UniProtKB/TrEMBL annotation:
Function field: Necessary for normal cell division and for the maintenance of normal septation.
Protein's recorded name: Probable GTP-binding protein EngB
Protein source organism: Tropicimonas isoalkanivorans
CDD domains: YihA_EngB
Alphabetical list of PROSITE patterns matching this protein: G_ENGB (PS51706)
Annotated HAMAP family: GTPase_EngB
A biological process from GO: division septum assembly
GO CC annotation: cytosol
Cofactor(s) the protein needs: Mg(2+)
Hydrolase found in the keyword field: no
Gene Ontology MF annotations: GTP binding; metal ion binding
Length: 217
């Protein structure tokens, strides 16, 4: 049981921000889309992944972080990303864009297959250094998210909640949503005790997230 206040992460130091900027200004490339655990690239460097409900903004966030418009494919249709997509960040990191969970406009059997893959990946990747779990800033943590958070607890994968679409959150709702998220995170021992609030639209929180990734060792 966590008894942590889960504050929104403070602005990183100038040095940390600069490390993040440099890391993400380097070469980023699509490596491959993986449909089975056997297809994962060699576990030869650290990686971070972006998990979350369909349509929460995972692919868009990867594009914002890397400064590309279309490195990761995005869509209005939930269920756009159906494979585990690997991107390199220089030669030192992998960024991993995951298929969404929850709702998807795809056949049931296909969704079931990629959900199995998602769960196998989240609990069985030794080089996964941190899972960023994206939560829609307008909606907070839902029941489907809980399932993934519990899986990450069991697998002892440290995860950090990143709130997305901050530009769409009414100022009056912001603290209410943050408090809901904080309360829901209490039972999760694998939860990193700081939240990140982002908008891929305005760029809010993007430099902070870059600094967080660059600060992992
Ligand atoms: N206003 C706003 N819209 C966003 C933001 N991030 C993503 N979106 C929109 O949300 C929709 C879904 O974004 P994606 O990045 O494709 O979502 P995803 O989580 O990768 O979805 P799946 O691959 O289907 O699981 C797109 O229409 C994006 O333009 C944001 O910060 N603000
Ligand atoms: Mg996607």
């Amino acid at each position: 049981m966590n008894t942590l206040p889960f504050p929104v992460v403070e602005a990183p130091s100038v040095e940390a921000m600069e490390r993040g900027r440099k890391l993400f200004a380097g070469r980023t490339e699509f490596v491959k889309g993986v449909v089975a655990m056997s297809g994962l690239p060699a576990a030869d460097r650290m990686e971070v992944c972006f998990a979350g409900r369909s349509n929460v903004g995972k692919s868009t966030l990867i594009n914002a972080l890397t400064g590309h418009k279309a490195l990761a494919r995005t869509s209005n249709t939930p269920g756009r990303t159906q494979e585990i997509n690997y991107f390199t960040l220089q030669d030192s990191h992998y960024l991993v864009d995951l298929p969404g969970y929850g709702f998807a406009k795809a056949p049931v059997a296909v969704v079931a297959q990629w959900q199995r893959l998602l769960k196998a990946y989240l609990s069985g990747r030794p080089t996964l250094r941190r899972a960023f779990v994206l939560i829609d800033g307008r909606h907070g943590i839902k029941a489907v998210d809980e399932e993934i958070l519990s899986l990450l607890d069991t697998a002892a994968v440290p995860f950090q909640v990143v709130l997305t679409k901050a530009d769409k959150v009414k100022a009056a709702d912001r603290e209410k949503i943050l408090d809901q998220v904080r309360a829901r995170l209490q039972p999760h021992p694998a939860a990193f005790p700081e939240l990140v609030v982002t908008s891929s639209e305005t760029g809010a929180g993007i430099e902070t997230l870059r600094a967080i990734v660059a600060g992992l060792d």
